[in-house]
């Protein structure tokens, strides 16, 4: 995946004549010029459009099959030879060469490695990310104008959108990141004429669901991208009386105001759960309670230490050789523990994985996990544990597991390895924390 020449963007211009080459024996006569001449003209047009945005393009870039990974804000700027890319997900920028070629149509090829473009295509550490996060680096250009370029990913079929950037790129992305951190509503409701529209937002995966509560057959789900003042949907709400595809967010009122022309009167009031907690409210000392039976509960003293990034904490105290990463779920105002790598010894990777089904089953699916939610008691805060609603896995506990070459060892082999490497155990005495129950704040 690190080799050069890995990006190829197919350009299919929204000109009917350019959608077909050599479809008929006498097509040159029909169009009045040769197919090769039309391709050359199309390449010149595409290059002119790409270079024409003075400040570059804002690219709504959707990842995952069916955009299940959500949308991310990219900035891309073309000159005669190179493209420079920035994004909210990568530090700095990167520049690579591109060229126009043909392959049954005009093709834009980014023919050198670009760290920013490649961010989501790079294989991750888990088995589920061996193909990266299912991100496109080849796109069919469905239409190209100076105002909007619509692209379709060749790999996923996701639509992506390029709009001219009207301000400084660094400032735009800084505002996107600020919006990403400040938008905290998990549900919303608003009226458009006589129609009520309810919404549910999955902020972590950047997904939204809209429904008419009076007729639930009128519903749709889509991904969204954060913008400098709110969010933009991957597609318009198809059952709304008027166009609805983007919102400006007011953090003071939790309101989302439609930004589509003619629809600014559509305002959704957003809400957070009653047990929602801010990121900075978790730091402190806790007793972590666990045990299969109510009569045999054990506790261990742990510390939650903020990483000051608005998204993660470190849990210390279970083992002096490693910390446990906790993820802040902004939509629910809660902390999650998910499968993660703790370290390596003698060619064996030690991971924290999830126990479920009364501690009879384990999973290392990266999305599975235990979530800790506030009991709504300010004086005696307790964060009760439960599954994070990933698929049908009722996450209950935590256990150490041994992996070799990225593959989980069989149960007997993993247990044998861990029995001979007790320095990895929780508190030096436990391989598993069965039925994790709560975090009780003590300081």
Main sheet overview: 8 strands, antiparallel, barrel
- Global Rg: 25 Å
Number of helices: 4
Strand content: 35-45%
Question: Would you give an account of this structure?
Answer:
The chain is mainly β. It is built from four helices and 33 strands.
Write the layout of secondary structure elements.
Blueprint: E1 9-10, H1 27-31, H2 35-52, E2 57-63, E3 70-78, E4 82-87, E5 90-97, E6 99-102, E7 106-109, E8 130-133, E9 139-144, E10 149-153, E11 159-164, H3 169-182, E12 187-192, E13 195-202, E14 207-211, E15 219-226, E16 230-233, E17 246-250, E18 255-258, E19 267-271, E20 284-290, E21 298-306, E22 312-316, E23 324-329, E24 334-337, E25 340-345, E26 348-356, E27 361-363, E28 370-374, E29 382-387, E30 395-404, E31 407-408, H4 411-419, E32 432-433, E33 436-441
Antiparallel strand pairs: 1-7, 2-3, 2-11, 3-4, 4-5, 6-7, 9-10, 10-11, 12-13, 12-19, 13-14, 14-15, 15-16, 16-17, 17-18, 18-19, 20-21, 20-33, 21-22, 22-23, 23-24, 24-28, 25-26, 26-27, 26-30, 28-29, 29-33, 30-31, 30-32
Question: What labels describe this entry?
Answer:
about 450 residues; mainly beta; eight-stranded antiparallel beta barrel; globular
